[in-house]
């Protein structure tokens, strides 16, 4: 082969697989959403890391310097100082951003990811290329799901490290129990499952309505409703324990998720606690012999977590499967 042959040999074009090309095109098209997601993760992670380190140290030092850690703290301990306020703000920012994630995900998936592309025709254009409708939808679900899982699980791990770093000072300074909604959802697998469910719901709503603003509004309403319903049914996802106390002992509930409280009569019947306003002998005159409390102890954290996570993943799978069926029927695409 001569030097002239070498110069005139045509270059072999670099081929990109249709799936890889679809992923790259999707990342370019939604780069603003990607940058926003990365920024949200960075801000939330930074707030949690600061709270875990210098924020908590400064708040605890301020707390002990004022003598609030002693057996007889002064009345000023009920008012947090500036270091504690900064610590609380950082934790609230981290928790708030993570809890806001399902709402943002559902709105974006319905409006920008699916609804806008169907409304302006870019989805139909993509289907005429080398990628079919079903593969297009699979990429729309898979790529955001991977990014959401990676970021959300990272923030969950950071929050769990913060919450379990030193439970004694944390409990004094922040007043957050394991069963509080924000703490409970972010300390386990629920936050990631909520994001996946919101993504699938948003995609389905976008396919159903095919318009940006209506799809965005309906998706937000659907995600809010889902989170609200699961918050309400959460205490009933696992069998409760029951504690019975005498009239002088009061009701149970230390470090527990209280589901129901009431009073017991001599026959064992459950009745509401009477409004006695501290009147001596009022309970006995109403036939009350004991108090009871149905509750979840801290050992029920993971059973409740996994049950709710399973429900969220079931919703996500159902919404995704429905989206595939709907798209196939509309386009006649083969599986």
UniProtKB/TrEMBL annotation:
Record bears the keyword Transmembrane helix: yes
Residues spanning the membrane: 34-53, 90-115, 136-158, 186-208, 213-230, 309-327
Superkingdom of source: Bacteria
Keywords on record: Membrane, Transmembrane, Transmembrane helix
Signal peptide: none
Ranges in coiled-coil conformation: none
Protein name per UniProt: ABC transporter permease
Organism: Streptomyces indiaensis
Record lineage: Bacteria, Bacillati, Actinomycetota, Actinomycetes, Kitasatosporales
